[in-house]
């Protein structure tokens, strides 16, 4: 992270906004029966075979990674990540109460879902937080070893999607891969060490 700091108000607004965008992206993926990588993809996949909601499964899958963030990165980062991930879990489970979509092409859902999730995650990353899951691992590897978070995340996501080959329709799997690529391209192109500099915090903000 840079030597500059966002204000507390900026952090709260950005993390909440990012969580909303991610939850919205998840909603589009759900509408088309698509998957994605990471713990999000695992939660979407398992939710098709159990009575537990996506939000519940997503939160449970991420819990071990919040502990990793606490011990490997910092308690502050872990708490922020817990709040961000919890917000996504709650929002994703309640978006359907506000509007209903009768039909969307899987191709559109893959692109818009990937873009929304990528931009939302980018906002959260830039305010010293994550969504838990493999986000914690890739950010740790980027900070410690200089490995691109986006490229590493893409590799993990594609591996998880490949393991879903026998569990979902091939056409849906193909569009799921497209969505994962779109998401990770957003991160790979925009989340690089030293590229982003925040403005100094304003004590009066």
TrEMBL record:
The keyword Transmembrane helix applies. Keywords: Cell membrane, Membrane, Transmembrane, Transmembrane helix. The keyword Iron does not apply. The chain crosses the membrane at residues 12-32, 52-71, 105-125, 172-189. InterPro entries: UPF0750_membrane, YitT. It is found in: Cell membrane. It is a multi-pass membrane protein. GO terms for cellular component: plasma membrane. This is YitT family protein. It comes from Salinivibrio kushneri.
């Amino acid at each position: 992270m840079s030597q500059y700091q966002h204000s507390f108000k900026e952090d709260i607004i950005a993390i909440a906004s990012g969580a909303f965008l991610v939850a919205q992206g998840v909603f589009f993926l759900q509408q088309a029966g698509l998957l994605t990588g990471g713990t999000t993809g695992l939660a979407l996949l398992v939710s098709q075979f159990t009575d537990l909601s996506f939000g519940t499964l997503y939160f449970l899958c991420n819990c071990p990674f919040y502990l990793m963030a606490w011990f490997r990165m910092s308690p502050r980062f872990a708490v922020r990540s817990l709040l961000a991930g919890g917000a996504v879990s709650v929002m994703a489970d309640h978006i359907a109460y506000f509007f209903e979509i009768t039909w969307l092409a899987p191709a559109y859902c893959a692109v818009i879902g990937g873009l929304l999730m990528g931009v939302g995650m980018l906002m959260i990353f830039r305010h010293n937080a994550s969504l838990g899951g493999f986000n914690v691992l890739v950010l740790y590897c980027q900070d410690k070893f200089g490995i691109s978070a986006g490229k590493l995340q893409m590799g993990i996501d594609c591996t998880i999607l490949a393991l879903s080959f026998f569990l979902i329709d091939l056409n849906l799997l193909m569009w799921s891969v497209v969505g994962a690529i779109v998401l990770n391209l957003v991160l790979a192109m925009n989340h690089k060490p030293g590229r982003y500099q925040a403005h100094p915090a304003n004590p009066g903000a």
